[in-house]
Amino acid sequence: MAGFGLPNFGQLTEAFRKAQQIQQDAAKLQDELDAMELEGQSSCGRASVWLSGNQQPLKVRIAPELAAEGAAATEAATLEALKAAYDTSTATMKERMEELTGGLNLNLPGIGG
Hints:
By secondary structure, the protein is an alpha+beta fold. The chain has a domain at 35-100: 2-Layer Sandwich (Ybab, Chain: A). The protein is 56% helix and 13% strand. Helix 1 (9-35) packs antiparallel against helix 3. The longest helix has 31 residues, at 71-101. The two termini are 18 Å apart.
């Protein structure tokens, strides 16, 4: 069969083993990301938003003095904090996914390798 460009059985078995390990690690990573609380803060420091590592909203904190400035100031600071939390959460997720898949190198002839 190797004459047709197919990998040998040992390579295929190793590829499946690696795929199963990645699947298990991915499930564990999903749980870890869900448990994270990542904070984003406005530049004024008076609005904070927390997201999980999977971008699920968790909580918001608005300083009373910011709320006293009115809706426009509160909305702008909250949006800024949300963007910061989202950026942190996205970067964390990307970094953790790269850690998970970084060592993946199947080297299977004829299959993307």
